[in-house]
Amino acid sequence: MQYNKRIMNKWIYGFVFLMLFFSCKHGEGEYHGVVEKIEAESKNYHGVTVSSEQYHDGIDMIKISEGGHEFLIPERKGQIKMYACTECHNKPLSKMQTEGEQKAHWDIKLVHANENTMSCVTCHNPDNMDQLKSLTHKEIDFNKSYNVCNQCHTKQFEDWKGGAHGKKIGGWAPPRASMTCVNCHNPHKPHFESKWPARFNTQTVKERE
Amino acid sequence: MSSNNKKWFSLNLGRKSSASSGSCGCGKTSGGCGSHSSDDYEMTDEAFVAAAVDASIGEERTKDGFEQVFDVKMDRRTAFKKLTASLLIGAGAVSTSCSVISGDESKEKAQIDWEEQFKGNYKLMTDEEKKATVDRLMRSYELRTGKNISMSSKNAEENILFGYAFNISKCQGYMDCVNACVEENNQDRDSQMQYIRIHEMKDGNGFSFDEADDNYYHEVPAEGHFYMGTQCFHCDNPPCVNVCPVQATWREDDGLVVVDYDWCVGCRYCMAACPYDGRRFNWKKPEVPEAEINHNQHYLGNRMRKKGVMEKCTFCVQRSRAGKNPACVEACPTGARIFGNLLDPNSTIRWVLENKKVFRLKEDLGTEPKFWYFMD
């Protein structure tokens, strides 16, 4: 009887051992999930051969370095139709605003925050029209206009630097090129308009009838 | 017979360019074999395809489920018709190739059809075989339409794992991505197939797909709603791949889940297995107006599909493997779509995963999608 019990115990232990042995295997995969896989396999990352540079053709870029991120953004001044501004703005603003004369910039209406917060000179430098200015009257180059925006929109700026806000130019492969604020948002009217969707699937409607 | 090391039996179809000209599949070099006798068997391309389709699915195209099995009127005539249809395909190919009268071009066409018919699974092909099939398909397109396409067979590269992030607080439901996808990937215009669906969800109800609408038509964004897009998530543990009985779909080393349209038998198991409704079936021959065809193609991507095969989003393999962003990412006017290399610690997609609060759809299923959602 005692002997039988011992043999039985052996069998049970053996069986349990085998069960544990097989059940600990998680399929064929080496990793428990894709996040673990990404962490492990990116440890010895040594670059890729594909590049997005060929898709930046025809766009003038400048390299910027912000908060540990280095990337390209489109050059701006060459894209402004009437730059340099001082070609017209050659005397103080008060002297240019004469009654009865034809107005310049008549098409620009500021729809950005409210009147208490923003006016033309919140961003534009009345003393030097070729430059923008910060809230503390420091000059900001038109090419780096994101420095004007990031005074208020700090969260968006963080996301943009990291790559969570805004669009890329070219492709995913290095070198990274991102659009800057004013490539998508009109600074005088920065919100996106509502519009009709680009597509309506009439077949789906038929199928669901 | 050709002497090179192929995995399938090759016919020497007697084209002038080949080394031993004039020999026929039957082995004779002069016109004494039966298949030379008549030109009546020479088929046009359309007849060839129609016969092939008839032979394989026939009436089933209009029926579904058990009807395909039980509701078949099969008299002797149809039975014979089906039998002869498959015979005709073979006979057509052989007669075209052996015919002394038919031109070099039609012989080349027949040669290509033959080789394409008996090629192996793309997954198992060597790089040379991949290049050969791509070359054949390009030549075949040229012979049929007189126009050139470029088709790539570029393999997955080391150190790349593609991933995608979708910002649900940025998407406004404009659906520009859907249009860009359809145009890029040569999807059937007639059935209005689309890989991407944008769901309009009520604020405060969470992701309730049963209450969401993915085919809205009113000015967007609509008050009190948010928008989220679904497409193939390129799971790292893809259930669709496991159920495929012929291994016509698989996960590439760069993470893309792809389909060999020439190996797919159209059983739609993968469609049933996908928990995200990421796969689409071609119930009819996809039609794209010649002027709208995207000529920049990849074997595993946007090349023209045929009737009765599965297809789905490939993260635009023809673009992504060349360093570009998928068409949907490029088209999105709000910047809600982010694409990149998950293995590159400096990529923007990695920044999103590490610094935003991300989640995936039906994460508990263990499918490990490489498609994350996040909010501002």
Q: Helices, strands, pairings?
A:
The complex is a heterodimer of chains A (209) and B (376).
Chain A: H1 2-23, H2 34-41, E1 61-66, E2 69-74, H3 93-96, H4 120-123, E3 132-133, E4 139-140, H5 146-149, H6 154-162, H7 181-184, H8 202-208
Antiparallel strand pairs in A: 1-2, 3-4
Chain B: H1 45-56, H2 67-70, H3 76-98, H4 104-117, H5 127-145, E1 150-152, E2 162-167, H6 176-184, E3 197-202, E4 225-230, H7 239-243, E5 249-251, E6 257-259, H8 269-273, E7 279-281, E8 296-298, E9 310-312, H9 317-320, H10 327-331, E10 337-341, H11 348-355, E11 358-359, E12 371-374
Parallel strand pairs in B: 1-8, 2-12
Antiparallel strand pairs in B: 2-10, 3-4, 5-6, 7-9, 11-12
Helix pairs in contact in B: 1-3, 3-4, 4-5
Question: What does it look like?
Answer:
Chain B: It comes from Allotamlana fucoidanivorans. With 209 residues, chain A is α+β, with helices and mostly antiparallel strands. Chain A contains eight helices and four strands. Chain A has a domain at 53-92 and 109-192. Chain A has a two-stranded antiparallel ribbon with strand order 1-2. A two-stranded antiparallel sheet of chain A has the order 3-4. The longest helix of chain A is centred in the first third of the chain and has 22 residues, at 2-23. The termini of chain A are far apart. The model of chain A has no long low-confidence stretch (mean pLDDT 90). Chain B is α+β, with helices and mostly antiparallel strands and 376 residues long. In chain B, 29% of the residues lie in helices and 12% in strands. Chain B has a four-stranded mixed sheet. The longest helix of chain B is centred in the N-terminal third of the chain and has 23 residues, at 76-98. The model of chain B is unreliable at 17-40 (pLDDT under 50). The chains are: A alpha+beta (209), B alpha+beta (376). Chains A and B meet through α2, α6 and α8 of A and β2, α6, β10 and α11 of B.
